[in-house]
Design goal:
The protein is mainly α. Strands 1-2-3 form a 3-stranded antiparallel sheet.
């Protein structure tokens, strides 16, 4: 055990945040799945154990990901992009259809569903970080740099947006942030943004889920004019938050878990506020803000452009996703299917989120090792020759 701890490197605050989020996730999921377990005629422990296995598996993946030198992810990103594009196409055509959305592919033998957009997020961010760092000398060149980068961003955006618009929009926003950090010209960024807006309009007006997207926006903007059933989830989440008060009802004492359709995933933040109150909700927000702050420090101290862009892209993606989920829960945005990173119950989303944390920690580990070597050189240089 001591040997394992000694090999654990990287930002200690991020490790602590991961542990706290994991513990909070176990408590929230155990409480939230009581009604689901009753409907399926099984014990709540069955869902808890399954979720615990995913959490432990995620932490193991994070540990091994942080041990791998982050530079290797540049090469891995090319393989991921080659696999991701056809996999997204396969998902749209042959994927499992849940709630009118083809987002999942069933993995043979283990019969576990796999959301391909989770891998696509990781693939695009690592590929963009690699491309922007590799092409810094020709970053203004349209053919060598701009077109390949724009093609990858817009291509992945469309393929994800056809089934999962909210995830696609967040990933597109992170991509624009990376383009700004990568010194892409304002004119070229404007072109990418314009292309994104055109593609967004096409998906919303012509895509297979256009009615769902329009309905959710109308429900959010004019809840009084639509069918009450369409605003049921949002209303129940508001009730959970309102009845939680300052200190909450206490762990396991939620009542809205019996009414919320997905209190263990999409609306887990509402359940947390109901049980832990405003204090619990603010505490969770602060954990994500501290995580973002620690990642900003990693970005500013990274000596290599690839490491800085990689840490920035992944941290922005995780933080934006977290705040998007919490915004929906408190009624600040239309209902989406975005999980709360490391807190919502899930399968592959937890694993890929853990890998993202591990890559960030790998960049942090590299910074620490370089600082340690520099300090050793200074100490050695100060020792007088015998």
């Amino acid at each position: 055990m001591e040997r394992l701890i000694n090999k654990t490197k990287g930002d200690r605050w991020i490790w602590l945040i991961v542990i706290l989020l994991s513990i909070w996730s176990l408590l929230a999921v155990y409480s939230a799945t009581g009604t689901l377990a009753y409907k399926k005629g099984v014990g709540t422990e069955q869902f808890l154990i399954k979720h615990l296995v995913m959490i432990v598996g995620g932490i193991a993946l994070m540990y091994f990901s942080h041990l791998l030198d982050y530079r290797h992810y540049a090469g891995i990103s090319k393989i991921l992009m080659i696999v991701t594009i056809p996999l997204l196409l396969y998902t749209l055509i042959f994927g499992a259809n849940v709630n009118e959305a083809s987002r999942w592919v069933t993995i043979p033998i283990i019969n576990q569903t796999f959301q391909t957009s989770d891998m696509a997020k990781l693939a695009l961010i690592t590929f963009l970080a690699r491309s922007l760092s590799k092409k810094q000398e020709n970053i203004k060149d349209v053919k060598k740099a701009f077109i390949p980068i724009m093609g990858s961003v817009c291509g992945v955006f469309v393929l994800i947006a056809l089934a999962n618009l909210s995830t696609a929009l967040m990933l597109f926003g992170v991509s624009i942030l990376l383009l700004i950090m990568g010194r892409i010209s304002i004119k070229q960024i404007a072109i990418v943004s314009l292309a994104g807006i055109i593609l967004l309009g096409g998906v919303m007006m012509l895509g297979p889920r256009r009615k769902t997207y329009i309905s959710r926006i109308e429900t959010y903007l004019h809840p009084e004019k639509v069918d009450p059933d369409k605003s049921f989830q949002a209303n129940q989440a508001k009730i959970a938050i309102a009845t939680g008060g300052v200190f909450g009802k206490g762990p396991g004492n939620s009542t809205q878990r019996n009414f919320l359709p997905h209190p263990y995933s999409d609306f887990v933040f509402a359940l947390i506020i109901e049980e832990y109150g405003l204090i619990g909700g603010v505490g969770l927000v602060l954990l994500y803000l501290v995580f973002l702050y620690r990642c900003v420090l990693i970005v500013t101290h990274s000596p290599k452009a690839f490491g800085a862009l990689l840490a920035a892209g992944l941290s922005f993606s995780l933080t934006i996703q977290a705040f998007a989920n919490m915004a929906v829960a408190v009624g600040l945005g239309p209902v989406t299917g975005v999980p709360l990173p490391l807190v919502s119950m899930g399968g592959t989303s937890i694993l890929f989120t853990s890998v993202a944390f591990g890559i960030i920690l790998s960049v942090s580990r590299d910074i620490e090792e370089k600082k340690q070597k520099d300090n050793e050189k200074v100490i050695v240089g100060e020792i007088p020759a015998m």
